[in-house]
């Protein structure tokens, strides 16, 4: 099956190893990173959403205007915009971008972050609301006539979107969330379920859970895995670079007064990454948990370490488990994106083509 690569466009040059500086929205940087992904053969680039960050739909609208082929994955949090309006915003942008957008639904696992936007629901309530939200969004995208919708959170009377997505039957829906509340909603709505970079055993387990939830609705779901590849010309150099990244991350966090141990994250995804980190720094073939351990796995924070060929082969192990999309971003976001496009993405595509051409031999 075809493999998809997603990169990452931040609003400014920052990462675990680079403290933020300059404007919160650096337009020149957004344009430069978007163009690097476009030239590097990425299929899409993620634009994140946070309770204090620049607005993701608007960032993507500008990034799409300065690129030609690159698609976008817009992180979107249900509950703050009416679903009918969000559906029309996304459908409108789908036309302006000539069918290059997808939406990544992130319901929100932290009560404290949600409160910054004035939302005081608990996790179970948020996922129940997301379920209704996506019911309405998809009807707005697809219904040929006005519709009514009555739920616990939304009461839409004669809703209708005159602008339908350019992509049919609708804009692709990515979905994140590993909790027991999240999986049933993902099974009902997700086109692509997004995981952070877990061990092969954890990925196998989550894929089975999501597939079972989707089967209840007669649906098939694809899977995306998020990783932070650390590559170099030799394996020793790559691990040296990984060690340097951990050291620099510790420096940045200590300077900012952030914790580096005894983390207790509330969201299930971070808890799962810390469970992996507790098993060791190097897992499976070359899964690396060094940064996850010192940051509390606050986001996509595990990686694969090695030469481009070694990392490509490790990605193929996940491909064999059913992962067809890889979200890869580096700790030096711009330079790493250029390196991935030059050294890693072509190699993985080559290996996938070989695997698909000779599936029996690969399985053996």
Molecular structure report:
The chain is of the alpha/beta class and about 375 residues long. It has one domain: TIM Barrel (Alpha-Beta Barrel). The chain contains 13 helices and 14 strands. It has an eight-stranded parallel β-barrel with strand order 1-2-3-4-7-8-9-14, surrounded by seven helices. The protein starts with a strand and ends with a helix. The model has no long low-confidence stretch (mean pLDDT about 95).
Biggest sheet details: 8 strands, parallel, barrel
Poorly predicted runs: none
Look at the helices and sheets and give the structural class: alpha/beta
Gap between N and C termini: 18 Å
Strand content: 15-25%
Helix segment count? 13
CATH superfamily heading: Luciferase-like domain
At CATH level 2, the architecture is Alpha-Beta Barrel
Approximate shape: globular
Average pLDDT rating: 95
What helical percentage do the residues reach? Answer: 40-55%
Detail the topology: elements first, then pairings:
Elements: E1 4-8, H1 27-39, E2 44-47, H2 56-65, E3 71-76, H3 83-96, E4 101-106, H4 111-116, H5 123-142, E5 147-150, E6 155-159, E7 173-176, H6 182-189, E8 192-196, H7 200-215, E9 222-227, E10 230-231, H8 235-255, H9 268-277, E11 282-283, E12 287-288, H10 290-295, E13 303-306, H11 308-321, E14 325-328, H12 333-357, H13 359-363
Parallel strand pairs: 1-2, 1-14, 2-3, 3-4, 4-7, 7-8, 8-9, 9-14, 10-13
Antiparallel strand pairs: 5-6, 11-12, 12-13
Helix pairs in contact: 1-2, 1-12, 3-5, 5-6, 6-7, 11-12
